[in-house]
Amino acid sequence: MIKKNNLEIRKEIIKVCKLMAEKNLVAGTEGNISGRASNGNVIMTPSGYNKSDINEDMLIETDLDANIISGDLKPTSEINMHLGFYKQRSKVMGVVHGHPIYMTAFAASGEELPDNILPEIVALFGKIVTVPYDTPSSIKLANVLKPFVKKHNVFILQNHGAAAVGTSVSDAYHRLQVSEAYANIVWAAKTLGGVKPIKTEKINELLNMVK
After folding, report:
1. Contact present, 14 and 36 (Cβ < 8 Å)
2. How sure is the predictor about 29, in pLDDT bands with cuts at 50, 70 and 90?
3. Annotated catalytic, 61?
4. Is-contact 130 112, C-beta < 8 A?
5. How many angstroms from the chain centroid is the CA of residue 32?
6. Burial class (CB in 10 A: 0-12, 13-18, 19+), 104
7. Which residues have C-beta within 8 Å of that of residue 120, sequence separation ≥ 6?
8. CB 132 within 8 A of CB 40
9. Which of 110, 155, 148 lies closest to 128, judged by CA?
10. Does the predicted TM-score (pTM) go above 0.90?
11. 61, containing H or E segment
12. 148, 202, 171: which is closest to 92 by C-alpha?
């Protein structure tokens, strides 16, 4: 975990905004991104703007109680979800939320993304958990997430989209991008007759190696 100052976080958020748009992890004004600065405050994207159009001056800085420190625009409507991650996990320094196609397809179908298919996902990400639906942009969604936040890093939000946390904004983006590729692979495998899970003893062997 590397703590970055306000300016560094702003530059990183803008970089990830453009990547999210380029990689089709968001469409239109969907999605939101935030990072925790070295002063403990959170810098986040504004509400209602295409991610590829956002610049550093448009970002909003708040404290953990959602009080606006700086910025002229309205913060993301998912502010409660973002701040909930930071409040519960002191080492989380970045949060990324998007609507990637394959993860959102799993979110819409109600089918959980299996966690024992590819060794890289098992070793580096753990279980990609599906969180029950509640109203987007509401405190209810943040509350539904609470039981899952401390044990997981990537979240499928039922009938909504997906979110990831990380040790930096870039790390959170990386986790969301790789998880979307994984969801694509699982979907493709299902069309070929189904996914073949790794045996339990091999999963345990892999986890012991990671430890």
Report:
1. no
2. very high
3. no
4. yes
5. 9
6. buried
7. 178
8. no
9. 155
10. yes
11. strand 60-62
12. 171
Output the six-digit token pair for 101.
């196609």
**Do residues 64 and 86 lie in contact, with contact meaning Cβ atoms separated by under 8 Å?**
yes
pLDDT of residue 209: 83
Residue keyed to tokens 């453009």: 18
Query: Tokens 């997430």 belong to which residue?
Result: 145
Whole-number Å distance between alpha carbons of 198 and 117: 6
Q: Can you give the pLDDT at residue 1?
A: 64
Q: Cα–Cα distance between 208 and 36 in angstroms, integer?
A: 32
Given 22, 78, 111, 201, the catalytic residue: 78
SS3 content of the chain, % helix, strand, coil (to 5): 45, 15, 40
Q: Could you tell me whether strands 94-98 and 154-157 are parallel, antiparallel, or unpaired per DSSP bridges? A: unpaired
Q: Which of 121, 113, 114, 129 is nearest to 206 (CA)?
A: 121
